[in-house]
Specification:
alpha+beta, four-stranded antiparallel sheet, 1 helix
Length: 413
């Protein structure tokens, strides 16, 4: 009987153990569901918390941005100043963020801290300056030498056999020169690395007309020339595009495209980049597009007198008298797609207008007006010293200014 009791007892303990194992499974399932709900609520709470924080930060940043965009500066402070060493008759302008100083006796390039990078001496009665990107070239009308340099070093000089009438320089250092010997006008392309011309061609008044303007693409492959010709008692301008790459070798004299404009004078040509160029006549603004064979894409007729023209690689601005209106001047600004992006109106007499990355600066030696590219006025005021040259930075609040004895970095306030 004792063995039977022990067996029954063992059986009871076994059954009891099975019952105990069954209960925790249900409880675990309930606990698991409860835990999942808690984790889900926690994730939702964390998501909404993070979302709320991000939304608040976004609103704060948006408000700060709007305030910054609408902010009009009323004064400035000089935050850095270095000595500006120069002769009394020196003129200066910006050369790719540096300062190019020139006079009858020579030219030099210095950085915005006043450190001279290089110095070139010469004797030129009336220096003619041409620049593109980091390259600068200087020569004299009727002279026979062109001095070429970039922001880092002197590249050399080009000597011609005939008097220089006009010239231009590309961003890679190729110089196109108009040379005249009274009966035939020659146009040659030079490099400082070679003594002889790279390529050239001759023109005559009876054939093409007289070249009154020329410009060259950044890569030195496309040359645009404006020829003025008397045709039947009327002045006509012909614009020719010459391609000196392998493509142009398939055309006579490398002339890949040409356009004629009756009763118009075209005294200005320019390249905004290797693909887009423009020509300015007394009655229209023309845009051309094409890296190999430029084609006319737009003619904008002009009925007013153009006072000044300013351009960089992205925009061209035409300044007119704003007759019959509240302001003295109006400037129309066009982009590389030949679209007008804005009109600016101002009264200030100006020495220069600069198109910066973030601002449009209109200034003279005593005062300045600054707009952003949305045409919002950012600053209007006077300089503390007479300014010879102004150089924008990437920050709309900061500018380098060259005054009589100093190079200053100013910050708008």
């Amino acid at each position: 009987m004792a063995e039977i009791k022990d067996f029954n007892r063992h059986q009871y303990l076994l059954n009891e153990g099975n019952n105990k194992n069954d209960l925790p499974v249900e409880e675990n399932e309930n606990d698991s569901k409860s835990m999942k709900k808690k984790l889900a609520r926690h994730r939702q709470l964390r998501f909404y918390t993070v979302f709320s924080i991000v939304a608040v930060i976004a609103v704060i940043l948006f408000v700060i941005y709007i305030n910054w965009k609408n902010k009009i500066y009323t004064t400035y402070e000089v935050i850095q100043q270095t000595d500006y060493v120069h002769s009394n008759d020196t003129e200066c302008f910006e050369l790719a963020g540096n300062i190019l100083n020139y006079s009858n006796d020579g030219m030099n390039c210095m950085d915005t801290r006043g450190r001279i990078i290089w110095n070139q001496t010469y004797e030129i009665q009336n220096p003619i300056i041409r620049s593109s990107g980091k390259i600068v070239a200087v020569a004299d009308y009727n002279g026979r030498t062109i001095y070429v340099a970039n922001t880092e070093e002197i590249l050399g000089q080009i000597n011609t056999t005939m008097p220089i009438r006009d010239f231009c320089v590309s961003a890679n250092g190729i110089v196109a020169v108009v040379l005249d010997n009274s009966t035939v006008t020659s146009i040659y392309l030079y490099s400082c690395k070679k003594k002889d011309p790279l390529v050239g061609f001759k023109t005559t008044m009876s054939k093409s007309g007289y070249p009154i303007a020329l410009n060259i693409s950044d890569d030195g492959t496309i040359l645009a020339v404006s020829y003025l010709k008397a045709d039947g008692g009327k002045l006509t301008t012909n614009i020719g595009f010459y391609n000196f790459s392998s493509v142009g070798q398939n055309y006579t004299d490398n002339l890949v495209s040409a356009y004629g404009y009756s009763e118009a004078v075209v005294p200005m040509l320019g390249f905004m980049n290797n693909d887009v160029s423009f020509a300015l006549a007394d009655n229209r603004l023309m845009f051309y597009q094409g890296r190999q064979k430029p084609e006319n894409i737009s003619d904008i007729l002009i009925s007013e007198n153009i006072l000044s023209v300013f351009n960089n690689k992205n925009y061209i601005g035409l300044v007119y008298y704003n007759s019959g209106a509240e302001t003295t001047y109006r400037m129309e600004i066009y982009n590389t797609s030949a679209q007008k992006v804005t009109d600016l109106y101002f009264d200030m007499e100006y020495n220069d207008i600069v198109f910066g990355n973030s601002s449009i600066i209109i200034y003279n030696s005593d005062e300045c007006i600054i707009y952003d590219w949305n045409s919002n006025l950012k600053y209007e005021g006077s300089f503390q010293n007479k300014v010879k040259c102004l150089i924008p930075t990437s920050n709309i609040e900061r500018y380098h200014v060259v005054v009589e004895d100093y190079i200053q970095l100013i910050q708008l306030k």
